[in-house]
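User: We ran a pulldown and think these components assemble together. Before we commit to crystallization trials, I'd like a predicted model of the whole complex to look at. Sequences follow.
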Amino acid sequence: MTRPSTFAERPLKVLTILARKGTHSYPAAAAEIQAIFSRQMPTLDRDTLIVDNDLPAGYDQSSADGRVIGGDNRHWEFSGFDRALAFIGRDIRKYDLVHMATAAFNTLHVEYLARFTEPLLRTALPYPACVGHIDCYNEMVSLLGYRSQHWIRSCFFFMRPSELLALGSLVSVPDAALFFTGSSDAPFRDGAPISPNYRRYITEWLTGKDIGQGVRWHRQLDLSSDNLIEFQEKTRAILNEHMLAIRLRALGGAVVDVTWLAAKLRQSEAINWRTSWRQQLTQANRDVVPAAVKTHS
Amino acid sequence: VSSVAAGQPVAVDVLVDLSATGFGPQDVERLVARWTQPESISPPGTRVTLVAPPGASAGEPLHLPPDWVAVDADSSLDLLNNVLGAAGRQGRALLLLTGAVDVSGEAVSLLCESLGRDPLFGFAVPRIGCADGCCFASLSTHGLGEAPWVSRRVLAELPETELITEFLSPCVLIRPEVLANFGPLDCRFKALPAALLHYMAMARRCGFRVLLANRAVVLIDGPTCAARTAPSMAALSPADESVLRQLVPELQRGWDQFRGASWQRFERLASAAGTAKSPARSSMLLDMRNVPPSYNGTTQAALNTAIGFKKLAPDWDVAVLANDKAIAFHNLERIFSGWPIHTILPEGPFTATVRLSQPWHIQEMIDAHQVALFNAYLMLDTIAWDVVYPAPTDLDGIWHFLADHADALLFDSEFTRQRFLQRFPTGAAVPGRVTHFSFDPDEYVQSNAPDADGDEEFFLIVGNSYDHKDVRRTLETLTAGFPFHRIKVLGLAGSTSPFVTAYESGELSETDVHRLYASASCVVLPTFYEGFGFPLVTALSYGRTVLARRSSLVEELAAHCSPRGRLLTFDRREDLVDLVGRLVHRRPLPDLPVGSSVRHGRFRSWSDVARDILSFLEPLVRDPSSSRWTPRERVLRQLLSYRA
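Assistant: Here's a predicted model for the assembly, 941 residues in total across the polymer chains.
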């Protein structure tokens, strides 16, 4: 248990890694991130590295938004993040925190973005925490032998360089063949290391259904042979996102909901970094808290 | 017996041993509440056996979930045998928790996944984090005894997993095949730690090893890293230890020679940085073992650099390693009063070692490697390697190792840097810096020196008996050209000419040597090859006219020297005669510029040298990933295997 830190020292040094795929879909992503930092965290000392998965490996140019390098789209934003981390190399240790974002960060329940402040990040700095927005399913799922129900949205979160370095590659599900049949009739392979309810959640979510939380994906895929590859790739992105939180928890790290942490700081309450995600969500006055979570707490 | 397969859920039984904790019912129920959280150790269907401390359920029965069984006992041995056997018969893995361990289900699953990677991975153990999660306990031999806390950032420097030998942990996952074949625990042991080490050894003797999972971290209640050392998590009674060593004679060898000890040392050295809550002052071991009990260039370089550190009073803890005779001769205990002076390698750990001269033997580098993550070496020159005859055996191999595995290389001149990298190109990948020595005339001139030797004019030739100094042949040339001029020679055994006075190296006191510099009409430096050139700086500091053999080193140094003297250069001995003749007859001479890089009359001092070295090392040692310790350790193990 610790009291919120109020010390004022040198500005925190933060590296933003923004993963994007061209600028067609979200042309203002970098500017919107800049606006958030200017508004909420104006004293941070921040560098920006944009990894563009539409650009070839080896591309390296400066832009008004930051340095832009060519990415790797094999595993969507996760291979893009890996490319950026490899590019920055050991220099990542010069930063206090790494801010990871995707170009689509400003879609679907974005109220939490307003909670990030410099005092909040300073409070989290001494702990092996990933601070972002916790999402969850209504029930426990199983993936690659791990049981879990929650994760951090990979479109906007902060983590210390040391945790990122310990985690290594952020691509946890590199092999599509382990999961998929190649048929849109029954996309998941028998014996794939993913529980039946997780398969159902993913299928329903990606085909535009409500998975019991009153929200739907902003897109809708028809599960057909035409869309099968996209279904598989989006599924792997979901699984990679989930595995990031799972691996951080295995590493003894804390998955911290920014809205919960901001509420604790606002109330000047002591922070128990081992607070379960369920308690965080129920204590955080969050915009969306699944009923199933509330009944568990 | 079912097996553990990567990526698949594994059926795991759990035994929680709180028998030695002395916890009361409330403590036990608090822990049980944590362990029964959905993401903890007991998903539905997990059979959990809780060994509660005697009396923990003396009043009301403990409130436990349906799959939990609680037993009060002061020893868990019998119960563990039952659980081992049952899990083994049913092809389930067993998670053995000892004490108040906060284990996430994800960490347990990672241990399961790790075991699934190889059929002979018999046991998986995670790392133990402090209560706040900012540090982890470094390895101790077999998991016994205390171990320093290490900052979590060091985790990234460890491999994802490592195979070691018998190792106790508050959290151990045991493979079904092991459970099915190696029980029960040997009843000759009185307590669990020895019994479990023996059990692991029996499995290992059949091939089943312990896997250290460095990406699984479990936290323990209570101890924080405010104390520098994590508490002992297991200990052996003398009786148990005796039986264990009798039954497993290779126990220690397994740890020492099969990676355990290597990682233990790495983590111990990493602990020199302290913890997140209690950062340690940086510490440095100055290796001066190569300083002899006499005055020479190495003495001057190493001793004055160390004195520079002393004057600087840096925010580092500094210790000196030197030989007995040099300590006495140079009065090091007085000069470095307040610093520990060692004559044998101290235990450390130090943040860095700095060898204040070249390494001459591989053991010197092994020593440095043993006590610090960062090993820096000051290269004074590469003369011995080039001229061969005075070089120690296998110097080529030694310096290849240096170039491949040093963490930092310091050079006393750009000239030395270029010579070294030309000969050992892999050294270019090592962080390096040229740190010239002092050029400050006040640190070279002795105030009592200029009185001696009266008015008699003489040339002073400076060198020693090494061939590259070229003293004898230069003297022959000068005496032929100026047969009736007095010449004094430093570094020569003797001369037949009545006009020549020769002094062997070490024959004169330091003050007498300075008197010669102060009184000479000109100083001749015929050497072909130097790394720095103290005689040049000294002679110019005394305002002498110096005649030196031309080299880029002379030009490099002259720019920083005191301009109160003159500098003339020559390429051949015959040119020297011409130069001296012009000098004697006061004819025009092509002087080399001196002091062109000196700004505002301020000369580089020995304190600047020390400051320069620290400013180079400080950013380097802040990042443990920039240490080459791990690959160096691997190569040293290979070298040592040959030597054994």
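The CA atoms of residues 211 and 227 of chain A lie 20 Å apart. That may be worth checking against your pulldown data before setting up trials.

User: Thanks, that helps.
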